[in-house]
Write a structure and sequence with these properties.
With 117 residues, the protein is mainly alpha-helical. 68% of the residues lie in helices and 12% in strands.
């Protein structure tokens, strides 16, 4: 087993932007501008870089159409689709545990502030 490769892939697919992009592509091909609109807070630079990394790894396909104006769509590949259920499960787990996790964070922060004060 190649630990460096595993770490590289987990860094890619565990990245918040990758998770959001993969989830957004779950319903089919999406244009770049639609991806940008669907993912609040992502910069154009980060969207472009993340799409390139996902495409390079074979999780996302980029299709350019020879039209005026040019149109580019992104979609999940078979490999990307095989990751989709894991990504959606992780997102659902995060949403389901949001309140509990926030409570733990507030309690920790309060203890840390009291210890520092």
């Amino acid at each position: 087993m190649d630990a460096d490769f595993i770490r590289e892939i987990l860094d890619l697919v565990g990245d918040k932007w990758s998770v959001l992009i993969i989830g957004t592509l779950s319903d089919g091909p999406v244009r770049y501008s639609e991806l940008a609109d669907a993912i609040p807070g992502i910069s154009q630079r980060m969207l472009t870089l993340t799409l390139k990394q996902l495409t390079r790894s074979g999780l996302v396909a980029r299709t350019a159409y020879a039209e005026v104006p040019p149109r580019v769509e992104y979609s999940l590949t078979g490999l990307g689709t095989s990751l989709l259920s894991t990504v959606l499960d992780l997102a659902a787990w995060s949403a389901d545990r949001h309140t509990e996790i926030r409570g733990h964070q507030r309690a920790y922060d309060a203890r840390t502030a009291a210890d520092a004060g």
